[in-house]
Structures are given as C-alpha cells and as structure tokens.
Amino acid sequence: TERVLWEEEYVKAMAWLKETDSETDAFLNSSARWRAVEEHDDMDDQEAQAVPSLKRERLMAKEKQKEVIVQQLLTLERKMAEFDQGQFTKTVDSFQDLDNTSSVELPSHLESRQDACEQFFEDLMKRMAFARNVVEQRLNVMDFLYQTDMVMEDALALQLDLSDAGLKARPGDNDREMTARVQSMHERIVQLVTATAGRIPYPVPGLEMDKGPNAAANEEISLVITRKRNDLISTSEHLDERLLAFRNVLQLHRKAKEHLDDAARLCDWADERVKMIRRAKVNVQQDVALTAEDLQRLERDRDSVLSKLKNGKENEVVDLLTRIQLLLETSKQLE
C-alpha cells in the first residue's frame, strides 16, 4: 500500500539524514575549523624553516591539507545534492501519493513525522552552508598565517642586512637601496594587515546548536589574527628604527669626511706658510744686503700670517677640533 511505500522511503531518508548529520558534525568539529593548536605545530617547525627542502615539504603538506579539507566539503555537498534529487524527492512524493489516495485526512502523527523529516533536511542544508563558510575561514586564516611567516622571515633578514650595512658603511655610500627595500616591506605588511586579514570571515551559524562552539572558535581565531597583526606592525616599526640607525651611520661618515677634508685644507695652508717663511729665511741668509723695501715686504708677509691666524685660521682649528670631539661622542652613543 501507499502507507507501506512511504514508511520504507521515510526510514531510508531518516537513516541517511542522521548519518550525514553525524558526518557533518564530525567535519565541523575536526578538520573544517582552524584551531590555534595548529599555530603551535607551525612554531615547532621553526627549525625546519631554515632548511629549504624541509620548508618546501611543510608548504606542500599545508597545500595537501587544504585539498583534503576542500574535497571533504565537496563530497558532503555532492551527497546532499544527490539526496535532494533522489531519496528525499522519493520520500516527499511518496507521502504526497499517500495523502492523495487516502479517503480520509491523514493522522497528524504521520504529517508530523514527514514535517520533521523535511525540517531535518532543511537544518542539514543550513549546517552544510555553515560548513562551507567555516572552511572558507580556515583557508583564509592559513593563507594569512603563511604569508605572515614569509614576511616576518624576510623582515628579519632585512634587519640583519641593515645592521651589516651599517658596519660596512663608507663615506660615499647612500641609503637608496635600503630605503627602497624597507618601503617594499612596509607595503607587504600593510597589505597583510589590512586586505589579507580583512578577507578572513567570521561565520554565523544558522542553527542554535552551532552558536556556542562557533563563537568560541571565532574568538580564538580573532585573538590569533590580532596578535599577528600587532607583530607585523611592530616589525614595521623596528625596520624604521634600523633604517634610521643606518642613516645616522652614513651621516657620521659624511661628517667625518668633511672634517678630514677641513683638516687637510688647514694642514696644506700651514705647510704653505711654513715654506714661505723658510724661503724668506734662506733669502735673508744668502743675501745679507737687504734693502728697506725687502724688509717691508717681509714684515707685511709676517703681519698677514699673524692676522690670518688671529682672525680666522685659529678659529677654524678650534671649530674643527670641537666638531671632531662631537663626532666621537655621537659615535660612542651608537655603539
């Protein structure tokens, strides 16, 4: 009879719904959701990051994990679609045939059972849509954390390069290359902190049973993302500090070169005046018969040298010594 046919289809539908609901529940509470413990596992692999081959293996393992999770989701969704077009449709049609062929109104408990079956399927579809959002969250979190690790690794290398450049700096060096590299790193960090982090969804479940676990998971993920964003911002600030320190070193080298050039110029001037005096002394010794005009010329040369020493060169020497002392004190502060 129609009642027996419907009962058979109903039993099959309910068995499938319970089984698939259990699978969906297990999926949601296991691989679909990203957990903070995975970050700790990544931290345990930090030593492996230094070895290129192990680093590649870790990346490949993460990509494989993504593929497996996505495949699990697609399998569940495909089962849902097949059930909707197959067993579920049979059950609904069978109940409709039972209702149409019945000469009396169907008992309420039969309608309640059918309604419960249809509601069960509707709720399961909501959970499946929620599961897709959870997987999307996982994939975006994994992408954000992977890119963050890469940026942090590159930023550390850049900080070391800045320190090394400061130690090897020469007077003629400039900061153009390092400034460009730091600016590029800033752009990568800004992209991560804003766009990449902003793409991470925080799903809202359609069923009450999922709200508690979902809220706890969203909070856990939000805390991790916030901490990582703060780490990235702090790293960006440290790069600025290292770049500023490098620029200060270059400035000291430029000042040191200026002081050396000034010192060399003063030495040349003094050497020239000493040579003039020696030449005058030789002339006096070789030519005893000096005229009054010769004596006046020698006196004028002497007065000119004394005047320059009192009015300019002496001050230049004092100023140069002061600047050199300041340079030495500044250099000590940078050590």
Q: Would you kindly provide a written description of the structure presented here, covering whatever features stand out?
A:
This protein has 335 residues and is mainly alpha-helical. Helix content is 87%, strand content 0%. The chain contains nine helices and no strands. Helix 1 packs parallel to helix 6 (108-167), helix 4 packs parallel to helix 5 (87-101) and helix 4 (52-85) packs antiparallel against helix 6. The longest helix is centred in the last third of the chain and has 79 residues, at 208-286. The protein is rod-shaped. The model is unreliable at 331-335 (pLDDT under 50).
**What is the helical fraction, as a range of percent?**
over 70%
- Following the backbone from N to C, one meets helices and strands in this order, namely HHHHHHHHH
Oligomerization: single chain
Ends apart, CA distance between termini: 95 Å
| Structural Rg | 42 Å
Quickly give the structural class. Answer: mainly alpha
Q: What percent of residues are in strands?
A: under 5%
Average pLDDT: 83
The main pleated sheet reads as: none
Q: Stretches where pLDDT falls below 50 for ≥5 residues?
A: 331-335
What coarse outline follows from CA principal-axis ratios? rod-shaped
Helical stretch tally = 9
Number of strand segments: 0
Index terms:
mainly alpha; 87% helix; rod-shaped
How are the secondary structure elements laid out?
Blueprint: H1 2-28, H2 37-44, H3 46-49, H4 52-85, H5 87-101, H6 108-167, H7 176-198, H8 208-286, H9 292-334
Helix pairs in contact: 1-4, 1-5, 1-6, 4-5, 4-6, 6-7, 6-8, 7-8, 8-9
